[in-house]
Specification:
Elements lengths: L2 H8 L10 E3 L2 E3 L5 E5 L6 E6 L3 H20 L2 H17 L1 H12 L3 H22 L5 E3 L6 E9 L2 E5 L7 H13 L2 E5 L5 H14 L6 E3 L4 H9 L4 E7 L2 H13 L3 E5 L4 E5 L5 H13 L9 E7 H16 L19 H16 L3 E2 L16 E4 L6 H4 L6 E7 L2 H9 L3 E2 L1 E5 L3 H10 L4 E4 L14 E2 L2 E2 L4 H6 L2 E9 L7
Parallel strand pairs: 7-8, 7-10, 8-9, 10-11, 12-13, 12-18, 13-16, 15-16, 18-19
Antiparallel strand pairs: 1-2, 3-4, 5-6, 6-22, 11-21, 14-15, 17-20
Helix pairs in contact: 2-8, 3-5, 3-6, 3-7, 4-5, 4-7, 5-6, 10-11
This protein binds adenosine-5'-diphosphate.
Length: 495
């Protein structure tokens, strides 16, 4: 059996594994020109997806533009009902969809299924939220005029998604876009297109009309500009690296597109002397090693106050040594491979740079070949602030630990980065919770927890971590625009 058949055989609903793009309601399989999708754990090719270009991108945008007119005029209730169907279908098929995700991305199956439930939660939340997307009547300064504000969908949206949460990042954008009445063209990452295709299947099963959701795969260099510079695209929403985000922002400027960017992070995780040490250690493990360290909100630098430092690093290293590394389908696995061998090589470089600069690895770790996509987790001490492991987004299971003396020092070190996405800190002191949360330059923050993401909250970054917010009521605003109507009374003076 080849990789595709093997994966298909795992599924209760095999039709969900369809390596096909979707344009205007038509599914398109790979032709001679194709992209191979590899399981990073086994190196097996699991599918071939189409390598589309500028012409198909144009066709997808045209389809979305044509479908927009009827989709936006459906009542909010009708769209909400369709979103709720998507929610139920995603939950119903979460095991299959989680398996597809694990096969193409590598994360443990438990995390894959959780990601599908996370994806589903956005459809549930925005189905409810759009029913309450009220406009307003503004108190008038002029007795002969009335002012009202209606909220309308922005138009065709280009959704560009990364490989670390191929379903979750799509859902966080797609659900509010569809709720608002926008139509979309999705360009998933080439490493993980199958989850996006499966979510599009779910949309079709739920009754989303043809052309409202389109999915295209191919070279980013060709599809990217064709999509972003297309005159019929009104908004670009992107999750990915800061460097690509900057390029997309520049390209979007020419057409004055609305832009939302969810970019890289360099999260500090600060443990104060008065923290509950077990909570801090377990949260650091979750925040650092979930998805093998490939989340934009991963703890990137662990800062520990001197009074608790020795105790914390010993326990953190001990717990890290216990993590099981292996294939995502093995139910014992805590950490899968990185998304591909190139990513793993990049993380190994950062680790070697730190070790060459005097850092020490504290935990026990298995050896992997330099050509493997697996990187064993490492707790690093004796690191310095200027090393790559502290200045760059690691995107892998490496945890550099820095010692600090005072709260002021911790805040200075934490904010000493161009990024500002997430931060975590651990303390029992209420006054400190206020002080530190006000002082940290981060869009989202966890106090005494390392897991903070949910559909209900506005998620996004400060500084070079991005623009705009996803989730919560703000996440719907991102796909709506206000239209003001001033109504003058022609018979304002009947006498
Ligand atoms: P990472 O560095 O995490 O691999 P990227 O930011 O490179 O992530 O990629 C995230 C998404 O952006 C992927 O879907 C990728 O194909 C896409 N992408 C990369 N470069 C461009 C580009 N120049 N134009 C449009 N999309 C791009």
């Amino acid at each position: 059996m080849n990789g595709f058949e093997e994966l298909k055989a795992r599924l209760k609903t095999p039709e969900l594994l369809a390596p096909e793009c979707l344009i205007d309601g038509r599914w398109i399989s790979a032709s001679a020109s194709a992209i191979s999708v590899e399981n990073p754990s086994t190196g097996q090719i699991i599918a071939q997806v189409p390598k589309l270009g500028a012409a198909e991108t144009d066709a997808a945008v045209d389809a979305a533009a044509a479908a927009f007119d009827s989709w936006k005029t459906l009542t909010a209730k009708v769209r909400a009902d369709i979103l709720m169907k998507m929610y139920h279908l995603l939950v119903e098929h979460s095991e299959d969809l989680g398996a597809i995700l694990t096969a193409e991305q590598g994360k443990p199956l438990r995390e894959g299924i959780n990601e599908i439930l996370f994806t589903a939660s956005f459809f549930e939340w925005y189905a409810a939220e759009i029913r309450r997307a009220y406009g307003k009547v503004v108190p008038t300064p002029d007795p002969d005029k009335r002012f009202l504000v209606m909220r309308q969908p922005i138009g065709v949206v280009a959704i560009i998604t990364p490989w670390n949460f191929p379903a979750g990042m799509m859902g966080r954008k797609l659900a509010p876009a569809l709720a608002a009445g926008c139509s979309v063209v999705v360009k998933p990452a080439s490493q993980t297109p199958l989850s996006a295709m499966a979510v599009a299947k779910i949309a079709e099963m739920a009754g989303v009309p043809a052309g409202v959701v389109n999915v295209i795969t191919g070279s980013a260099a060709e599809i990217g500009p064709a999509l972003i510079e297309h005159p019929k695209v009104s908004k670009v929403t992107f999750t990915g690296s800061t460097s690509v985000g900057r390029t997309l922002y520049e390209k979007s400027a020419r057409g004055l597109k609305h832009v939302s960017l969810e970019l890289g992070g360099n999260a500090p995780l600060i443990v104060f002397d008065d923290a509950d040490i077990e909570t801090a250690v377990e949260s650091a493990i979750q925040s650092k090693f979930r998805n093998a360290g490939q989340t934009c909100v991963c703890a990137n630098r662990v800062l520990v106050q001197s009074g608790i430092y020795d105790q914390f690093v010993a326990r953190f290293a001990e717990r890290t040594s216990q993590l099981k590394i292996g294939d995502g389908f093995d139910l014992e696995t805590d950490l899968g491979p990185l998304v591909d061998r190139r990513a793993a090589a990049g993380v190994r470089d950062i680790l070697q740079d730190a070790v060459a600069g005097g850092a020490r690895i504290l935990n026990d770790r298995p050896e992997f070949e330099d050509t493997s996509a697996f990187v064993a987790p490492a707790v690093l001490v004796d690191v310095t602030e200027g090393q790559r492991v502290c200045t760059e987004e690691i995107f892998g299971p490496i945890a550099p630990v820095l010692k600090f003396e005072t709260e002021t020092d911790a805040i200075r070190i934490a904010n000493n980065t161009e990024y500002g996405l997430s931060a975590y800190f651990f303390t029992r002191d209420n006054a400190r919770i206020w002080r530190v949360s006000e002082a940290l330059d981060s869009g989202v923050m966890g106090v005494n927890t390392g897991l903070i993401s949910t559909a209900e909250i506005p998620f996004g970054g400060m500084k070079h971590s991005g623009l705009g917010r996803e989730g919560g009521e703000e996440g719907l605003d991102a796909f709506l625009q206000s239209k003001m109507v001033c109504i003058a009374d022609v018979n304002s003076n009947p006498n």
